[in-house]
Amino acid sequence: MSSGRAAAGVFTLVILVATVVAVVIARGWPSQARLFPTVVGIPMIVLLAGQLLADVTPSRLGWARRGVSAGPVDVPVDDSVPGSVVVGRSLAAFAWLLGLGAGIALIGFNIAIPAFVCAYLVVRARASLVHILAGTGFIVLALVVIFNKLVSMRWPEPLFPGPEEAVIRLLGG
Amino acid sequence: MLEAGFEALGGIFGCPCVAGVVPARLAFIALGVVFGLGLGVIPGLGGLVGLAIILPFTFGMDPHSAFGLIIGLASVTQTSDTIPAVLFGVPGTAASMATIVDGYPMSVNGEAGRAFGAGFTASVVGGLFGAAVLGLSLPLLRPVVTAFAAPEFFMLGLLGITMVATISGSAPVKGLIAGGLGLMFGMIGMDPLTGVLRWTGDMLYLWDGLPLVPVALGLFAVPEMVDLVIKGTSIAERDSPVARVMAGVRDVGRHWFLVLRCSLIGTWAGAIPGLGTAVTDWFAYGHARQTEKGAGESFGRGDVRGVIAPESANNATMAGALVPTIAFGVPGSASMALILGALLIHGIIPGPQMLGEHLALTYTIVWSVPIANILGAGLCLVLARSMAKLARVRAHLLFPTVVALVFLAAVQSTRSFGDVVVLLLFSVGGWLMKRFRWPRPPLLLGLVLAPIIEQNLSIAYHRHGLTWVGRPIVVIIFLVTLASLAYALMAGRKRGDVSDAASAPEKSRE
User: Are residues A30 and B175, on separate chains, in Cβ contact within 8 Å?
Assistant: First the structure.
């Protein structure tokens, strides 16, 4: 079995397991509450089982072959980048996103967002000073003018609120 | 009535004037347009936030100027939301999600200018069509709109589900599973009928269900940005010359019948309270995919018709949504509820008075829609070429700014950290779905339709027993649903036969 087919199979298996767990949990609810989840969930389990079979076996069935080789209605995937490179770069990208999420949780939007933009432009993009200042400046302006002044955004409280409160006071929020 | 209509138009273009030159009411419409365009471009903000901001400023204004400002803003957010959808694959508002499917590939193919030209022109035509329907049908639509109750809404939801088959392309099984996943995600939260907490895991954040904005941004926007940095180049490899913008404008002329049909879909869907622009867009897109020649092969790969269809529908929806709001005092969405609030603040009671005592104001509102659409689309077309250049910016320069805006947009839903978690989880899921060739639009459609289908089915049954099945509009929608499903299955079978025939010579060579 190719690694691509194995990965696709694992993805389908995860969805199948999650759906089974969801339907089992729904069995503990009153009948009216569990009716719709059951009506939707059980056919889904059947379809997922069939799709899992198609993913892991070289099936000759037309419907399965179409699902693997033909494109769905969605933004097309660019297959020009080798698989190993895709894995490495995607992990790096999601690591940055997770870092941004963690930063927001720890120190709040008003610090984490400009810090993320600045850090990415410096470290990953290796951008010129002009681009770094322009990118960071644009985001700070958007934060101050649109979200703090205009929308009067009530930010979710981070784990360490002190620094963000100081920044907001400094920016006249 | 005609006299009142022309009088209102004269009031918009006549004095009193600002600085003795610009008619005051027209100036307020233009101000609303500029503000609305800016809001539509920034993901997560949109018309509702804009209306909430400007509403207090209108208290002291005369009603005609106030509603010029309000309608000017509300009419154009769904024009400028095309910009991030086409350029970055980021929906500016819920109304531009369907535009991404063909708009973003057009940008990748160096045709961002053409997508803008087509999108903005289709938007203005849709807005004009909706305004015409609004102006002509206000006295006539009451029996039609009030005929729609829970059974009809349930059937409309089922019709939406058949769109899943249509927008699954040639991956129907994966599409149905994705649609089912969307339905299940839509059921998360407190069941409004029984009060049971479904799949909330004791988290207060999930009591109201999964918010649409972080889910949509996670499914579409972030995976596109991640794929962009994986590719490592700019979105488009080549420039989009100004001639391509005009080619997009000509495309709308060439596909005028598609524009008319989708504008009609948008107007009617907007006139039905509670359906929403997110669903209307997919109706229009699905309809175009089912009916346009060759759409089965080309949609999803940068077909301009895939931009024209949703864009003409979503601007028409806004005008259609004004019908129940003004004529019956029934707002179909949160934005319409704010507009209703503005009417009440100015001492105007929606209903028969709008066609009697306040006829002049009604026609000011009606005229404001097309004027705002023309101003908004005109401004966007002038700036289209400059905006298209953003598609040539290097991936690593765009990524942090766009991602930052996406995170800021996501948190607008509930203003809690849960929005960030939902965004991150659906980003991973959406990227994996794209990589493993699972269609994402059906999941979003299922999420939006789940409450419509479940709640209305239950209300229909408890209110009418099983007699609702025989209601005339229910039967009509059911027949349309069957026809839609049959067409989608037959078209899918035909595409499968064609691809089988195409691959047969390869198999025989093996």
Answer: no
Q: Are A103 and A115 in contact (CB under 8 A)?
A: yes
pLDDT at res. A67: 40
> How many helices (DSSP H) and strands (DSSP E) are in chain B?
23, 4
Give CA–CA dist A25/B53, Å, rounded: 43
Task: Compute CA distances A95 → A120, B111, B241, whole Å.
Answer: 12, 32, 37
pTM for this prediction: 0.80
For chain A, the residue count is 173
Alpha carbons within 13 angstroms on the beta-carbon side of residue B149 total 14
The closest CB to that of B439, out of A74, A78, A94, belongs to: A74
pLDDT at A58: 65
Residue A71 has pLDDT above 60, yes or no: no
d(Cα A28, Cα B371) in Å, to the nearest integer?
A: 56
Tell me how far apart the alpha carbons of residues B181 and B311 are, in angstroms, rounded to a whole number.
27
Residue B401 CB coordination number (10 Å): 20
B160 by DSSP, 3-state: which? helix
Query: At CA B94, angle to CA B89 and CA B100, rounded to 5?
Result: 25
> How is residue B244 written in tokens?
């391509």
Q: How far is CA B258 from the centre of its chain?
A: 17
How far apart are alpha carbons B186 and B179 in whole angstroms?
A: 10
User: A59 contacts in B (CB within 8 Å)?
Assistant: none
CA proximity to B441, closest of B237, B208, B284? B284
Q: Tell which wins on pLDDT, A92 or A64.
A: A92
- pLDDT < 70: residue spans in chain B: 1-11, 14-22, 44-45, 138-146, 164-170, 236-243, 273-276, 352, 488-489, 491-510
Segment 49-108 of chain A within 8 Å of chain B by CB: 50-51, 54, 62-64, 66-68, 70-78, 80-81, 85-86, 89-90, 93-94, 97-98, 100-101, 104-105
